[in-house]
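Take just one protein record:
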Amino acid sequence: MLYGAIPGSDALRSNLARLYSTKVGTPLHKDNIRITPGGIAANQLVLYSLAGPGDHVISHYPTYQQLYSYPASLGAEVDLWKARPEKGWIPEIEDLRKMVRTNTKLIIINNPNNPTGAVMKKSWLQSVIDIAEEHNIPILCDEVYRPLFHSIQPMDPEFPPSILSMGYKNTIATGSLSKAYSLAGIRIGWVASRDPDLIEAFHRARDYSIISVSQIGDQIATFALSQDTIHGLLARNLQLARTNLAVLEKFMIKHDDYAEWIKPLAGTTAFIKFSRDGKPVNATDLCERLQEKTGVMLVPGDKCFGKEFKGYVRLGYVQEEDVLREGLEHLRQFLRKDFDDVKLSE
């Protein structure tokens, strides 16, 4: 078996181009897409190409750590554009306006958001584009959880289109089959832009890290994104997300003396804060004790998403329903029997 097509097969890129061309005046051509080994490699190509010493980057936060730590490792100065729970985990546009500098080379957003499940809606995206366009700054939108919008409907006038469909050429979208499509094992992601110069820069950068993706993975991805398959695949995952979110919401209501959240609108994760006696618990201690006693794994927010997220854990809720119910039952028993032993945050 030979190497696959370096940019990705024509069939896979054509299927992706069709998805980005729905309900837009100008279709996206397949040549404006490059296939990568997962979304992480797509982000890496963009950040490597656009950020370096002397550059300033603004990153949505909290989010996937790669999006702000990797450009910092390349020598760029990174400002965190912080979202807050009291604002529904939506960053303030005025904060972004104040952050922009003459050497700002990239604005990074993550929509839908990991870990909160928040959705940045259409008018918010337009406000970001207005600022970026004024200063000719590229926007990278990590859309890896798109289109798993389980709690906002496409007919909603604020339903968020892809960043590529907002009329600003200087935008970049990265995506993956790992999340919304439940195909993490084939390691297929992509980067897309309407600016051919950006795509050419990413294509050159990949020569230093990627030859091609697996031909087998490419073919599976092509099948998954074909018109005969994609609608059934997404319908299955959206229904699972809606069903499980309702299960999780009931759990949260029953345990609101311990736990609080902003209910997610999309994606597969929720960001939940656990407190006792009015103080956030030590999330790492909570997660370690829970896993040791029950086998249930949660991700400590202050360890993995930022020190300020004391008491927060990320919980993934889109798996088979019986698996979620079993995990929540273990968590319920832990909260009843062992929660008082969990340390409080300092």
User: Anything to note?
Assistant: The mean pLDDT is 97. The first helix runs from residue 10 to 20.
